[in-house]
Amino acid sequence: MTRSGSYLLIIAAGGYATRALPLTGYGAKMKALVNAGVDGATVLETILREAERSGIEHVVTVVSSEEAAQAVERFLDPLGQDPDFAEFLVKRGKTAEMEQIRALPRFKCAECVVQTEPRGFGDATALAADVFFAEEFDGACVALGDDVVHAASPAMAQLISGRRSLGGTVAAVQRVSKEEASRFGVVLVEGEPIEMPNDFTGRTAYRVLDMEEKPADPSPNMIDGEETYLAVAGRYAISADDMRFLAGAEGAIHQELDFTALLRRNAANGSLSAVELDGHWHSVGSPLDAQKAFLRYALIPESGQAGGSHAELRRYAQSLLNELDSDQQRLYD
Predict the structure, then answer these.
(1) Is the model's pTM score more than 0.90?
(2) What band does 46 get if pLDDT is binned at 50, 70 and 90?
(3) Which of 22, 190, 240, 256 shows the smallest number of beta carbons within 10 Å?
């Protein structure tokens, strides 16, 4: 029986993360386990909390090795996967730490799939096809394992709310500068936004005409009379037809199943839309980008209500800025 509003989350967390080697201990851990979220949460935890807040109950994480799968499984259930650790916390009376672990996101079903060869993002998504078709999901949310979205309304919920009206495939996008656009996939859209219902939680929505993958000279959109670049923000809501396309390897390009092939196909047939996120997207593929994300989560609460750590870190950051201003002033005295 179909469950209204049910979505599978697919996290693409494979690959070698070569741009982020210092963050991963030079390959000792997955990039998805880098600290970048609220109170130092890992990227993986931040994505899972976004899914939990979006009402998603089933998760597949695609990784590149059995060792990585074991790391994810331990993360999802640290007490169950490591009884010695659980016993240690009990013996030492680490009540707060036990509560912190128990507060981790919980799902009806969470499993790992190993991508044995680095055959691209599209192939990673297709590896969840068996799980997807075993249940009657309304669709799947796909998240890149090195992207986080700092938003009061979770990004996946924004995509799902958009897809209820738009149908087809929905990609999350965010406005970037021309210089930044060359680092990402960017979409070309109709200039006028789509009129959306009151329950839509994103910022705006557009019909996508085409996309470019890391263009050296990106083409701008003309929105409200201004040149605007819309980068794809590492979140998608896809359909059963999309999954069949990927699982059938129809998007194979040079031995890699490229997700871009799916997006271009759907743009050509009019079934691809873009939801401009109400929030801030961070791709944490490099150390500098991860530090930027960490600062945003540390200083600005998603809920709008600052906790103790936010207030303390704001004071500390302000003291550092004041110190920097003083040092700069001394240079001119």
Answers:
(1) yes
(2) very high
(3) 22
Q: What is the 3-state secondary structure (H, E, C) of the chain?
A: CCCCCCEEEEEECCCCCHHHCCCCCCCCCCHHHCECCHHHCEHHHHHHHHHHHCCCCEEEEEECCHHHHHHHHHHHCHHHHCHHHHHHHHHCCCHHHHHHHHCCCCCCEEEEEECCCCCCHHHHHHCCHHHHHHCCCCEEEEEECCEEEECCCCHHHHHHHHHHHHCCEEEEEEEECHHHHCCCEEEEECCCCCCCCCCCCCCEEEEEEEEEECCCCCCCEEECCEEEEEEEEEEEEECHHHHHHHHCCCCEECCEECHHHHHHHHHHCCCEEEEECCCEEEECCCHHHHHHHHHHHHHCCCCCCCCHHHHHHHHHHHHHHHHHHHHHHHHHC
- Does 109 have pLDDT greater than 90? yes
Cα–Cα distance list, 197 to 41, 155, 274 (Å): 34, 17, 15
Those residues with Cβ within 8 angstroms of residue 299's Cβ, 6 or more apart along the chain or in another chain? 310, 313, 314, 317
Average pLDDT over every residue of 137-160: 96
Res. 254 pLDDT band, cuts 50 70 90: very low
Q: Are 11 and 116 in contact (CB under 8 A)?
A: no
162 contacts 200 by C-beta, under 8 angstroms: yes
Query: What does the block give as tokens for 155?
Result: 């990004």
pLDDT band of 4, cuts 50, 70, 90: very low
Residue 75, C-beta contacts closer than 8 angstroms, at least 6 positions apart: 33, 42, 44, 45, 104
pLDDT grade for 24, boundaries at 50, 70 and 90: confident
